[in-house]
Amino acid sequence: MADDKKTSDLPERITVLAREFTPAAMEFHRRNMSEKGYRMEGQIVQRRFQMIEGLGAPKDLFDGELFYAATFVRKGEEK
């Protein structure tokens, strides 16, 4: 039991990115996220990611490439 992480030590949300839909969709099962106390949040859709630093304009991450994003949220964290 000493090697097991407490639920409170796990991040509230984890987002994985993939270039293709199937790997993003399978990640929930591959990592046994349900057993770790997570559920999938929303749909797996392609997105462009940008970063804003200070008050400047947002800049594309990953050269503007679209990625499928799957977000897992710890069960019971919706408040």
Q: State the distance separating the first and last CA atoms.
A: 29 Å
Q: Considering DSSP H and I runs of 4 or more, what fraction of the residues is helical?
A: 10-25%
Q: Within the largest sheet, what's the order of strands?
A: 1-5-2
Largest sheet: 3 strands, antiparallel
Number of helices: 1
Total strands: the figure is: 5
Concise description?
This protein has 79 residues and is mostly beta strands. 13% of the residues lie in helices and 35% in strands.
Notable characteristics:
79 residues, mainly beta, 3-stranded antiparallel beta sheet, two-stranded antiparallel sheet, 13% helix
What is the element layout, followed by pairings?
Elements: E1 13-18, H1 21-30, E2 38-47, E3 50-51, E4 59-60, E5 67-74
Antiparallel strand pairs: 1-5, 2-5, 3-4
Describe this structure in words.
The chain is mostly beta strands. The protein has one helix spanning 21-30; strands at residues 13-18, 38-47, 50-51, 59-60, 67-74. The protein contains one helix and five strands, in the order βαββββ. Strand 3 (50-51) and strand 4 form a beta hairpin. The model has no long low-confidence stretch (mean pLDDT 86).
